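User: For my dataset I need records formatted as: sequence, then structure tokens, nothing else. Please produce one.
Assistant:
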Amino acid sequence: MNKKSICFIGVNPNLEGGISNYQKNIIKYIQLKEENANISWVYKSKVKEDYSKEDINYVGLKVINIPFIDDFIFNRKVRRYLGNNYFDIINSHAIWGYWMKNYKRRNNQTLINTYHGASFPYYKVHLRRFGIIKKILLSPLLLYSYLIEKPPIKNANKIICVSEKVKRQIEETYSKRKDIFVVRTGVNLEDFKQRDKSKIRKEIGLEKGRIYGLHVAKGGYWIKGLDRVVNISEEIYKKDPNYRLIVIGPNYEKNKKFLNKKFIISLEKVSRERIPLYYSASDMFFCLSRYEGGAPTLVTSESMASGCLLVCSKDSEQEIIEDDKNGLIIEKFDKNDAEKVMNILNNKKKKEEIIRNSIKTIKEFSLEKWGKRYMDVLK
């Protein structure tokens, strides 16, 4: 039987982050379950790259770093590359589906784009933090987001959305179409699981008797809600000086005004292999974003699987979460919300019930179940 050739187009595999880990997870599933598959990963790179590792062909297309313009250039290079190389299935991710504009699909070839969010509402949320003058100056971002995300709506055979919200927003921004599927993000339950908290804390140098909150996110503070996490953590700290907040990912210098607090442990870089230990060591996880595509997001599902009490913002719209049942939903991030969180932490029976329900929920999104759903769409 001839091997199917599958090409994934997305973020650089050397970058740690949601979409990169998402692609690694689906490729891992394919390698375990689909023997007849040749896999390639095409991405934007500072240098031209073409190599094979662990049965994956990596193709880095060199693009000069010019914000926003480089994405159009990259997609044009992708279109040229695909014109010279045949794949049975091409699955692009996020804004890296623009190459479908003017692409001539070959016979028996399937084109799929996975939307990890809807860029138009995402940038609208970004613009909220600016005054009127900056909003006017930055308004072209809305046109950029509209144009770069549009081609797959018309040209893809199938569309995958990571949540019902993304599906709704994509259809509201463009138009409704057939063959659009919601496949929620899966999690590797072998890596992310409950562990002995005391042992893990000792292993990574945390104190045994403290209360630890955790926030994991790259990039700036606004979208991921770092300011919100710090605000509510400050209120928790006032109520209990034994509390500490671990923040993994944000650049300290760029976010110093938020991170320069005595109760914060700032860790800019933690290896992917050690991230599960911080989930297992923490009492609660904060997902207080102003916009998220995934519902659950990857970090949300990882924290749930690890037995953290999940605290999420209402506008992050984590669709699988029910307040007070398998997580907490808050929206003001003030002393009242801090009290709500502390009441659950101090109520052992209620906390364990929420965590138990949380783990039960996330088991439906195991790598195995998610990978099968995803491959059913790809094939």
